[in-house]
Each structure stands twice: as structure tokens, then as C-alpha cells.
Amino acid sequence: MKKLTAVALGALFLATPLAGCGGGGSGGLITLDVYSQLANYSGEQIGFTATLLEDKFGVRLNIISDGDGTYASRMESGDLGDIVVWANSGTQYQEAVRQEMLLDWESEDYYDDDGGSILENYGQDIMEYFPLALESNRQINNEMVGDNHIYGIGHGMSQGDGHEAFFYSWDIRWDLYKQLGYPEVNDLDDLYDLFVAMKEICPTDDNGNPTYAFSLWPDWDDAMVMYVKSFVSAYYGYDELGMGLYDTETNTFHGALEENGPYLEMLEFFNRLNQAGLIDPNSMTQNYDQMVSKVSNGGTFASIFNYAGYIPYNTPAHLEQGKMMGTLVPNDASVIVYGSNSYGGDRIWSIGSSSQYPELAMQIINYFATPEGAMSMWHGLEGVHWNYAENGGMEYTEFGQQCQNDKSTLQNGQTWTSPDTGKTYELSGSFNDGTLQANNILWSFDAVNPDPRANGERFNNEFWTSQQGDSEYEIVQDWVNYHQAEIDEAYGEGVYTIRNRQDYLEYRPVYDESGNLIEGEKGYTVIPAVNYAMSSKGDLTTSWNAVITNIKNGSWQAIMASTSGQYQVYVRSMISSANGNGYADCIEWNINEGIRKFGSAS
């Protein structure tokens, strides 16, 4: 998914140095264009990230988001930008390499009188921490383009075994669940019944508007409707792969339109909710920000995503009122989680070959590979938002905790003194505004911070020692107590401690149809990390685009159908149109991709 880390943005001012405090103003700053296919925002980077990059590198970033025709026009102009962030390593990235639109990171043609490549001179931290990811990029280029050089690096790297943190949080309104007596939720039918019951006791939100089980949005749809295919991943543990979903445990590919397949099953589930008045009627036309506003006001009962669930809803005000979204997974579900990945994901950082400032571009990418850069990316400025704790590990300042609780918190009135230059800067904008709007990462959020002061803790604040302990909010402690009792009953008292949703998802017990605990069975499915780049679709591209249009349009019509009969008409029409546009050929291509990625597919 392109825009998993989407944030609300505002037209606020770039942070500037305080007069009389050593700051030199913004004169002389170099502007770097950042063309990002992942960005949700176009314009100048503002907030604390702008302050940081101004102080460390003397640069400002101009973010250029991807829209219709943006890629083609920039390719035609011969200038992709200074920093180029790719949504994936597929056709467009490969074409840019083929046409020499990206800088070769191993070229020794210039940059340093003492010799060495731009990577060796300005990317030392990348080389230290992510050597496998660099070689992965070389392998992709060699395999797909026939060029055995490095033109970028992927995203989300970590070191070591195991799996990433759980991304699908399965949030529900815990206060309403408690009010209903904690009914058992085994499957989709039970989930449907729970939402019907919640609607009966909570028909309106904080502002008196109607409530719904889910509020969806179409912005992030790709080959399928994003929320539907993600529900399959969250429930069955199948990984998205092109025009369908892949079961890595059985090496089976399920096409989107497979009869009785998982995508159509979830499509029907959402229509069933819609017929009961439990899907926001604006879901087909609203954008992400409009959806989040409704969630923030209590307009939804559930979300499988934290950023559309507990993050916007669990404000101090709601928690003080005894209202909360908390994780609850249906007993029959096997939540998807991704294995730790040293190769890097396919959202690639690269540098445009026409850049006038390639050294600066490499320095900035390299900075985000440092522990300091990674911490700043997610948590803000050291000394303002967070610090290394006296006994090791990370901890938030009081203001930093406030920003984590509510990322729309304004930074006005806060100052930061640079440990490098001694300059003092006045911050502005919201915390969200200040996050890097290129919307990509180098380190995985779940990787261990290699700074010795981190004491082996992850970048992910859910795992910080400073974030553990009893909650000051009764409703949060009720959630902890409920799941702790569930775990104790399954495994014995004191075997596992539930501190947060990650613990619950890790240790959630699995039972057979007779209600007996299945020893050693996990309530999740780990998708193994592999070194993979999607093949070019070539002559299939036109057919592919026509089919995914059929699937997306037909899926939305099916979701919003008012009757079961109307639903069936829309589904049959979608299948017929897709078949007529070459669906079978698309699925054959997809099965071959499954073989390339995971070794086999059926």
C-alpha cells in the first residue's frame, strides 16, 4: 500500500531561527526537489524536519507528490528530481534505470578528489547498516535491467530474525464491547452481530452524526479495493500480490475474482454491513482526511488499521471519558505479520542523475540511516520531544508524549537548540506537519536502535520500557486485564505478561473447533522476507489497467449495493467485464510472479 503512513497536513510556516539566538535565517538555503510516489502532500517541507535539515545540511525540501502524468512528464523533461522515492521497484523504476535517469551510486567519475564513489564518500552509514539491501538493489537491477550497479536502496530494513511488529491492529470500541458484556467473537458472523449491537447502544458520534462499523476511503486502491483486500490479509494472513492474495503456507495464489475466494468473501461481508447501515455512505467518495475526522469524533466502531483506529480516537479526552479503541481479533483469524527484512522492501530511495547537488542528496538519505535520523523521523527532535533515558532506552519528554497522544499538537512556543551549530530555532506547525512528507523510511520501525544508549530497545515506542506499566486510564487497564485473564487461562498464570497490543497479538491463544487449546499454534501468519522485484507487465499493461478498473469500480458498486440481489448483479457484471478484458492472462502473470517471489504457486 502506497500511503500507509498518511498524516493530516496544514498550511503552516517553515520553522525559522529565533532572532538574536545565533540563527542565521533561511537565506542561502539550497532547495532539493523530492519527487515521491508515496507522498500525500506537495509543497515545501515544514516543521521540525525542515528545522533539522536546515541546521544540519543547509537545505530545504520541495516535496513533489505523484499524480496523473507526473512520472511521464518528469521523465520527458529529463529531470526526476534530486531525491526520488519510488512506490515499488517495478516498471517505472526499472525504466528510469534503463534510461539513465538515476544516479549510479558506485560511479567514481566525480564527488571526491581522493577517489571513491558517492556512496563510499557520503553514504557510510548506509554501507555499515544495510549492506544486504544495497546488494539487493544491485541484484534487482541486474536481473530486471541487465545493469549490475546500485541505483538506490529499499525501505524498512532490520537486522536479525523474527518478525516485525503487528501492523493490523483490529481496533474496536472497547467501551462499547465492555458495555455489551464482552461477547465472544469467533468469526465474521459474530463480528457482524457485534457491530449491530454497538449501533443499537451508540447510534451517534460525539457530534450527533450517525455511527458506522467502518468508514472507508478509495484513495489508496490499487489493483483491488484496498480495505477489502487488507481485510483478507488481516483475517487469513494472505499477502497481497498484484491482482490477488497469496497464501504462503500452502503456496496458493487466490485471484481477486476467484469463485468463493477470499476477496469476494470479504466483499460480500462489507455489503452485508452496508445493508445493515453499518458502512459510511460516503466511503466511495471521501478522502483519507475526511475519514480520519469521523474516526476522531467516534463515528466508527472498528478499524483494522491503527492509523484509522486507536491513533486518532484514543485521545486523552476520550480516555478520560472511559472511551477507547482496543485490539480484539476474531478467534478464527490469523493476522498477517511480516518477517524481519535485511534486504529492504521495494519502496526505493534514489537520486536523480540530473541533480546539481547529488552529494547533499546522498547525505540526507544517509542521515535517515543513522539512529539519530531514524529517531527524528518518527519521534521528533532529541531534547524537545524525546531523550535517551539515564539508565538506557528512550523516553518522551512531557511535550513529546503530548505529541504522541495527539499528533495534531502545535509546536508553537517550543524551541530547539542545535547541538551541532548552537543555533536556537523556534518551532511551528503541528507534529504531523513536521514529519517527513516524502513518506518513506530506511530503518524498519521495529528494528533495534543500534545506538548503545538505546539499551537494545526498538525504534517502535510500543516496546520502550518507559512506555510500559499500569495505565492511568481505567478503560485502558480494563483492556489489559481482560486479555491478561484470557492469556492466563490458556497458558497458566504468570507465563506471559500483556503490556500492550503487541503482546496480545503475539500470545493470543488458538483453539480448535471443540474449544481445546492448540499447543504451539500462533494466532498469526509470518510472511517471509524475500529479495524480489516485480516483473514488467509489458504488453499486458493495457489489459491489466482495464481489468483493475473493472475490479475497483465493480467492487465499490457491490459494497454499496442496497440489496443482496443488486450485489449479485454488480459482482456478475464485474466478473464478466474483467474476463472480457483479459483477466485470465493477468492471473497467469500473477501466478508466475508468485513463483518468482515465493518459489511456487498454484
What does this protein structure show overall?
The protein is an alpha+beta fold and 602 residues long. 37% of the residues lie in helices and 12% in strands. It is built from 22 helices and 19 strands. Strands 3-4-2-5-14-6 form a 6-stranded mixed sheet. Strands 1-18-17 form a 3-stranded antiparallel sheet, with no helix packed on it. A hairpin with a 3-residue loop joins strand 8 and strand 9. Helix 9 (226-236) crosses helix 10 and helix 20 packs antiparallel against helix 21. The longest helix is centred in the last third of the chain and has 19 residues, at 541-559. It starts with 15 loop residues before the first strand and ends with a helix. Residues 1-26 have low confidence and may be disordered.
What are the main properties of this structure?
602 residues; alpha+beta; six-stranded mixed β-sheet; three-stranded antiparallel β-sheet; 22 helices; 37% helix; disordered N terminus
Question: Could you give a short description of this structure?
Answer:
The protein is of the alpha+beta class. It is globular, with a radius of gyration of 24 Å.
